[in-house]
Amino acid sequence: MRAGELFDLSGELALVTGASSGLGKRFAAVLAANGATVIVVARRTDRLDVLVAEIERSGGKAFAVACDVTDSAQIALAFDQAEDLAGPVTILVNNAGIAHAGGALNLKHAEWRSVMATNLDAVFHVAQEGAQRMVEAEKSGSIINIASVLGTHLQKGVSAYAVSKAGVIQLTKALALEWARHNIRVNAIAPGWFRTEINDAFLDSDMGDVMKRKNPMRRFGGEADLDGALLLLASGAGAYMTGGLITVDGGHTLEV
Ligand SMILES: NC(=O)c1ccc[n+]([C@@H]2O[C@H](COP(=O)([O-])OP(=O)(O)OC[C@H]3O[C@@H](n4cnc5c(N)ncnc54)[C@H](OP(=O)(O)O)[C@@H]3O)[C@@H](O)[C@H]2O)c1
Q1: SS3 category, 119
Q2: Are 185 and 142 in contact (CB under 8 A)?
């Protein structure tokens, strides 16, 4: 089997949340470059329109759909729109996420709720909506949840974020266990540090510089460093993988 064939996504419809920037934008472009039609989802539709134009210029096919993933009614509407535009979703990348900064002692309840609503509740709601429709359409599918190395490891000042990502990892296993009989695979990726809008101020700080120097590879993740994990889980190459977590962190979590 040749790699191009093994990872080919022709005929698949992928929905990527949080595609208006950072990792999600790249995920959408990579899935499209490998043959999938892609529904790009976020609140900032002006950015989604630019991404759709970029994907189309490169020969791919994509559509923009506005959705706040913390609103389950909007999630259902986004899937309705995706189906009207291109059919049933078969690859789902649960990527939308937010961070917060500050110690647990003074973390406001509203901030805790907001992180949980976006990073954990929405991951469940989007996965459930997608899986229900896959079952109804009698389609197999792949759900890829974007966790974090902070779902298994810690640093100070990220309590809500770390707990939400730990929840995503356990949720991934729970859904994988229940949905395998429907041929719906559910896996997660745990990225280390990748420079995006979620963390660029932190990574530019002295602390960010320390993080970079502490990384065994002496660098943050680069633009293409998650492509392989994404394609493995999205394509037939990962057909027997479910409930898994792929860590892509340059060795960051190896050393205590
Ligand atoms: N960068 C890293 O080092 C790193 C490491 C580990 C894990 N991650 C995870 O990777 C994912 C992507 O993060 P990123 O680094 O690419 O950050 P980013 O550039 O800030 O992108 C976050 C994306 O999430 C979307 N989003 C946030 N709240 C949303 C909501 N309520 N409804 C719909 N979309 C929403 C944003 O779109 P709109 O604002 O347009 O809605 C944006 O497209 C996150 O889950 C993050 O936790 C990142």
Answers
A1: helix
A2: yes
Determine the Cα–Cα distance for residues 235 and 10; give it in Å rounded to an integer: 10
Q: What is the pLDDT of residues 170-199, one digit of tens each?
A: 999 999 999 999 999 999 999 999 999 999
Q: How far is the CA of 237 from the centre of ligand 1 (A)?
A: 26
pLDDT digits (tens, 9 = 90+) for 119-164: 999 999 999 999 999 999 999 999 999 999 999 999 999 999 999 9
Point out the ligand 1 atom lying closest to the alpha carbon of residue 19.
Answer: 43
Say if CB 145 and CB 127 are below 8 A apart: yes
CA distance 36 to 38: 6
| Domain 3-191+226-246 CATH assignment equals 3.40.50.720 | yes
Hey, which residues does 66 pair with through a beta bridge? 42
Kindly give the number of the ligand 1 atom that is closest to the alpha carbon of 17. Answer: 34
Dump pLDDT digits (tens) for 39-55: 999 999 999 999 999 99
The residue type of 238 is G
